[in-house]
Amino acid sequence: MPNARRRSATAPIPAAHDALHTAIAERTPKLVSRRRHFHRRPELSYEERETAATIAAHLRTLGLDVTKDVGGGHGVVGLLGGTATGAAAGPTLMVRADIDALPITEHSGVEYASRRPGAMHACGHDGHIAIAMTLAEVLAARRDRLRGSVKFVFQPAEERAAGAEPMVAAGVLRDVDAVIGLHLWSQVPVGEIAVRPGAFFAGADELHLRVRGRGGHGAEPHLTVDPVVVTAQIVTALQTLVSREINPLHSAVITFGMIHGGTAGNVVADEVELKGTLRTYDSADRDYLLRRIGELACGVATSLRAEAICEPGMSCPACVNDEQVAALVRRAAEATVGAEHVVGERRFSVSDDMARFLQEAPGCYFVVGAGNVARGITAPHHNASFDLDEASLPIGVEVLARAALEFLA
Ligand SMILES: [Zn+2]
Ligand SMILES: [Zn+2]
Question: What are the DSSP E strand ranges found in 358-401?
Fold first, then answer.
């Protein structure tokens, strides 16, 4: 702690009126209208066709080298080569923005609300697109200061945790030296930034269990194996894993949000199906818990004459930030909003498939506050009333720009 305090005391003073800040401020009306453009026209995961076309056209007008349909979906990659001496041999920084919307009908009441019933940018990815497009403008105008390249990666299908992996497989990270990206967050006040080394967003694993018994008459339970009773024991037993088997200084979550079984009150079911989610910050905890969930469920079922079958589900690793890249982002954040507005400890129990990029290259994912209690902007992400305080948008551009300019100086 004394060290941390000393570092904050000597942290750079926000460069409130330097040329970069002014250039971004001048572009802010356009940045906001760009965000609203995408907000009105949300496209669901795997359907981001128009969004990708608009992004690609913008990057081409800036003179970037653009590739579409990267990874088989609607991924867009734009490469901005610097022109500073030695740029050709310099490093490459990747900036990632996710672009998909959610299957929600908007009830925010804002003037720029979604025009498409059943689709809404309720996670702020519209803001991420607008920030990255504006960042490309700002950095393209500063090519002569870049001793290396910036690779802009616009990733589809984040809400299905399925868009990053095919882009990695398509070689997006080839020649990339570091990866940065941000998530706007309505539960963090605008003007604050959260960034830390190590685990930042949790890893998520879908849990899918089937408990098989033997059905029969509800009045003759001795002739059946009741999977409902077995399931009740399994759910209770699994709750002891986090509390009794995981280091209390770590954290993890096991939630079963769905149990389906049976057809009538006087019928013992043949089978019960459970779906849940596991959240962890540490890959060893994740591997341990996945193994123990299977062992415990099968052990309880067997001891009660039933059978438990664990089926693999969707999995997204934790977002783990590199120490040096997180320090770079932290300096950029402190220069943008002031050291007193940069939060260094907070982690988030949500997941993001930015994790796939961070597994392959050193990088940093960070959160830019976008909530505002005084203005009533408090709805959580994935809610039909979700909105962003748009003052967060230029902050996001500035942090990314400062980090890129320092990395490629
Ligand atoms: Zn989301
Ligand atoms: Zn999101």
Answer: 363-371
Helix, strand, coil shares of the chain, percent, nearest 5, are: 40, 25, 35
Can 352 be counted among the known catalytic residues?
A: no
Distance CA 349, CA 70 (A): 29
Closest by Cα among 255, 275, 253 to 349? 253
Task: Going from the first residue of the chain to its last (409 residues), give the mean pLDDT of each consecutive group of 10, the final group possibly shorter.
Answer: 39 66 97 98 98 98 98 97 95 98 97 98 98 98 98 97 97 98 98 98 97 98 98 98 96 95 98 97 96 98 98 93 98 97 95 97 98 97 98 98 98
The closest alpha carbon to 335, from 407, 266, 395, 251, belongs to 395
**Residue of 43, 100, 137, 226 with catalytic role:** 100
At a CB cut-off of 8 Å and minimum separation 6, what does 74 contact?
46, 47, 48, 49, 51, 52, 68, 99, 156
Q: Is 220 among the residues known to form the active site?
A: no
Q: Which structure tokens are listed for 149?
A: 């390249």
Ligand 1: centre distance to CA 182 (Å): 13
- pTM (2 d.p.): 0.89
